[in-house]
UniProtKB/TrEMBL annotation:
Top-level taxon in the UniProt lineage: Eukaryota
Keywords in alphabetical order: Membrane, Transmembrane, Transmembrane helix
Transmembrane segments: 184-213
The species this protein was found in: Panagrellus redivivus
Origin organism lineage: Eukaryota, Metazoa, Ecdysozoa, Nematoda, Chromadorea
Name under which the protein is recorded: LAM_G_DOMAIN domain-containing protein
Region (Disordered): 133-163
Length: 302
């Protein structure tokens, strides 16, 4: 490959996909150095790192540019402050073809690539001859699938003139159509587990609150019954001090202990429903007579 001695760029055009997971790597083999660039798709976009795990780039852009300087330093654009720099063999000492161009040996290797990736070489880069790159994917008990990529020089006659070569693209696609769903299923499973745990927690809180509320209400009723009964009114046994209620309309209705407010006390007295209604709307003097009647019933029941 013939490149400008001042440096050059390699463009990666990656086809869009919503499938999460790794989708292969591209290896650059130079004389004395091998560099792998691994590609993966996650929720934030495309993540690129070196073969040994060094972070290079991450984002939603599907067109990435690898900037290569004459001293062999390479990094992806747009550059991230936390991105690593790839070290390639410097080509400023490579054999010279013309005053401003150098000749380097490059081999491309595609590993488990299952999405289309196009490599674009910037203006000024040219190739001496056709190079065939073979990608092989082997799986147990399945026939071998092979994809061949050819990189050709489209401007062989003018490659020695700077700025006259056109970008050259190589396309790669994986014929076995392998897709990776593991991360999607993991996210779905974790979401279901988290939802079940959250609902169980909410249900436990509701049950606890209802249990505590019922216990408190029951305790309040017992306390009210035993401690808030007003002292009996001392009256002579004169019928004028008692109130004559009407008989209930339903002969089957029975006396029940019911709560009334009397002299700022809550009292529990045996009464019918219509008597409680009459007590609420009675005058103070009648309320006292009604209360005496209720208390006499209590004593008679004992």
């Amino acid at each position: 490959m013939i490149v400008p001695q001042s440096g050059h760029r390699i463009t990666f055009k990656i086809s869009p996909s919503n499938v999460l997971g790794d989708f292969g790597s591209v290896g650059f083999i130079f004389d004395g150095a091998n560099v792998d660039m691994k590609f993966a798709n996650d929720l934030g976009g495309i993540r690129i790192q070196t073969g040994d795990g060094a972070f290079l780039q991450h984002g939603k852009d599907e067109v990435l540019i690898l900037e290569v300087t004459a001293d062999g330093m390479a990094y992806l654009l747009p550059r991230n402050p936390s991105s690593a720099t790839v070290k390639l063999p410097p080509f400023n000492n490579a054999p010279r073809t013309t005053p401003n161009f150098r000749w380097i040996r490059l081999q491309l290797v595609w590993n488990d690539v299952n999405r289309q990736i196009e490599l674009g070489f910037a203006t000024g880069v040219s190739f001496e001859q056709v190079h065939d790159v073979t990608v092989s994917t082997e799986e147990p008990e399945k026939p071998e699938t092979t994809t061949t990529t050819s990189i050709t020089d489209e401007n062989d006659e003018n490659r020695e003139a700077a700025g006259t070569s056109t970008p050259i693209f190589s396309k790669i696609s994986n014929a076995n159509g392998q897709v990776f769903y593991s991360q999607i299923w993991f996210i779905v499973l974790m979401t279901i587990v988290a939802t079940v745990i959250f609902l169980a927690f909410v249900l436990a809180v509701i049950v606890t609150i209802r249990f505590c509320y019922r216990r408190r209400l029951k305790s309040r009723r017992v306390t009210t019954t035993t401690t808030t009964t007003p002292p009996p009114v001392q009256v002579a046994q004169n019928e004028s001090n008692f109130y004559q209620f009407e008989n209930p309309k339903d002969p089957k209705e029975k006396l029940k202990n019911r709560g009334i407010q009397f002299n700022q006390y809550l009292a529990i007295v045996p009464a019918y429903k219509h008597e409680i209604r009459a007590f609420k709307h009675a005058t103070p003097s009648n309320k006292e007579r009604m209360y005496n009647t209720f208390m006499r019933r209590s004593q008679e029941e004992v």
